[in-house]
């Protein structure tokens, strides 16, 4: 009902899943241009022909984040509600304008659907060496997935959400969502240069006169973010797929000293720590 009262709505039709065998058609309906641009960056953008033949979506996101949920509804304890129906293939966002809810909603759907097809969905980044050797980097947000996968000597497959199939790996997304706090050209030149026309900066402070961004400012939050299409990284693969990984790296950010700074794990140890939540 709230979306129906808006003078203008923004609709993005795009894909999730770089492998056509597992690809989903995604439609985003939102009242904010910012959210539409964000998902235009983060999803896989269709060609003009693919857009003409798009048809009905496999998954629809209704983003009414400017409108709060009714806290007096039975079962509600907050004015924020992020709800998903797997049977209806729909997601509804109320009471939060954090754009990341949309990308994580699509990831949740892949986490539900892919194991049913014998595919492992992964919160991990991936890149590929010149000899076709793929490395994947498991890790929670902020542990370095985007930074490490954007190695200028290796081809970027993706920075956050992937699937591992019998044939190899593929990126779920068509963009990157980098931490922007303390971002600098000296430390992360590829990501720094991706902050240009078409990208989206979140929670950052900038000079109102010259529009220079102060990446060191954390007065709003430490979780400052930069969203950009994957092709803004010059060495990104044109199609975000690769062969089966040769290297599996876990970025644990272990604050309790359970693991040493660097450890080479056996397959059994890797499975144990993966299942224990160290990534």
From TrEMBL:
Give, as one word, the top-level EC class: lyase
Q: A GO CC term? A: cytosol
EC nos: 4.1.1.49
The record's listing under InterPro entries reads: PEP_carboxykinase_ATP, PEP_carboxykinase_C, PEP_carboxykinase_N, PEPCK_ATP_CS
According to its UniProt entry, this protein's organism is Amorphochlora amoebiformis
Single annotated GO MF: ATP binding
| Record GO biological process | gluconeogenesis
Query: Which residue windows are transmembrane per the record?
Result: none
Family, similarity comment: Belongs to the phosphoenolpyruvate carboxykinase (ATP) family.
Q: Which reaction does it catalyse?
A: oxaloacetate + ATP = phosphoenolpyruvate + ADP + CO2
Alphabetical list of PROSITE patterns matching this protein: PEPCK_ATP
Protein name in the entry: phosphoenolpyruvate carboxykinase (ATP)
- Which pathway does this polypeptide act in? Carbohydrate biosynthesis; gluconeogenesis
Q: Which UniProt keywords apply?
A: ATP-binding, Decarboxylase, Gluconeogenesis, Lyase, Nucleotide-binding
Q: What is the lineage of its organism?
A: Eukaryota, Sar, Rhizaria, Cercozoa, Chlorarachniophyceae
């Amino acid at each position: 009902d709230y979306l129906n009262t808006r003078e203008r709505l923004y609709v993005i039709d795009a894909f999730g899943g770089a492998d056509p065998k597992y690809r989903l058609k995604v439609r985003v309906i939102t009242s904010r241009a910012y959210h539409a641009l964000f998902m235009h960056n983060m999803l896989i953008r269709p060609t003009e022909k693919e857009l003409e033949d798009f048809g009905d979506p496999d998954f629809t996101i209704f983003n009414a984040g400017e409108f709060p949920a009714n806290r007096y509804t039975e079962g509600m304890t907050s004015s924020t509600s992020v709800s998903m129906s797997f049977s209806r293939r729909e997601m509804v966002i109320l009471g939060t304008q954090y754009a990341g809810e949309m990308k994580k909603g699509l990831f949740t759907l892949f986490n539900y659907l892919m194991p049913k097809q014998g595919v492992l969905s992964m919160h991990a980044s991936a890149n590929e060496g010149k000899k076709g050797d793929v490395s994947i980097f498991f890790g929670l947000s902020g542990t370095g997935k985007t930074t490490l996968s954007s190695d200028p000597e290796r081809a970027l497959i993706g920075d956050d959400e992937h699937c591992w199939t019998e044939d190899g790996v593929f990126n779920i997304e068509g963009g990157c969502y980098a931490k922007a706090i303390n971002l600098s050209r000296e430390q992360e030149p590829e990501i720094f240069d991706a902050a240009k026309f078409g990208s989206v900066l979140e929670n950052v402070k900038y000079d109102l006169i010259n529009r220079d961004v102060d990446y060191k400012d954390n007065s709003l939050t430490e979780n400052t973010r930069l969203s950009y299409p994957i092709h803004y990284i010059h060495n990104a693969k044109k199609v975000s797929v690769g062969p089966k990984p040769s290297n599996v790296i876990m970025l644990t950010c272990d604050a309790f000293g359970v693991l040493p700074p660097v450890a080479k794990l056996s397959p059994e140890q890797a499975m144990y720590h993966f299942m224990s939540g160290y990534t």
